[in-house]
Amino acid sequence: MADESTQQLEVLAPVAQAQPEQPAPKPIVPGLMGKKLGMTRLFREDGKSVTVTVIEVGPCYVIQVRKEANGQRSIQLGFAATKEKSLTKPVLGHLKKAKVAAVRYVRELRLPQQMEMNVEVGQALSADAFTPGEFVDVTGTSIGKGFQGGVKRWHWKGGKATHGSTQHRAPGSIGSTTTPGRTIRGHHLPGHMGHAQVTVQNLEVIKIDAQEHLLVVKGAVPGPANGLVIIRHAVKRRKAKKAPPPPKAKQGGGVAKAKGKVKKQ
What we know:
By secondary structure, this protein is mostly beta strands. It has a domain at 23-157 and 189-233: Translation factors (Elongation Factor Tu (Ef-tu), domain 3). Helices cover 9% and strands 32% of the residues. A hairpin with a 5-residue loop joins strand 3 (60-67) and strand 4 (73-81). It is extended. It starts with a helix and ends in a 32-residue tail after the last strand. 17% of the residues are buried. The model has no long low-confidence stretch (mean pLDDT 83).
């Protein structure tokens, strides 16, 4: 009898349901590093084609969170795994202190005054730090073009192509006579083109794949394929234009007339 009562109690006992795991809070950081993979296009729900750039964002590791004496704060991130023999011993010691594996790139990003981070040293960050629909600024190194002439570098019009002209792409005169007697600083001349830091602002985030560490943004991103880029939250996003106010009514009940001259028929 005792065994039967025990079995009945086990049947009547409520089954403890496993509570669903709460999702981790979204990391709040000023930006992340990534690698430009290439360009393609996607189709929106309305069927319109959108040219996009695919960026491999992360995993980025938090190496250090700094706070200067003047109150300025910054975060140091590492990206792209590499071999330990490729790094110097001081850099390896700095990474081991944060319990981070060897990384190829280490960059420091400054925090805005109103931003409060929720990340810890050694934490891995991915593309889920951004949200589809938001706008970002992407910084990269443009493709180097080497030494180029003024027509390609500065979009000169060039000389005549016919009628006996012997000047087609040459610079021509670059200064005045006795006054001022020198070439003005900043004059556009042939020289090294490209391989410079470029920032493209207000690119819309179209899609995010946190598992594959992919971030898809609308438009072009500076730099070649597999080049390093830094993605930050947009700081100069223009607000939507407000609709014009309705015309004011006169005291007599009529509507104010539009200003401007009326053409006679």
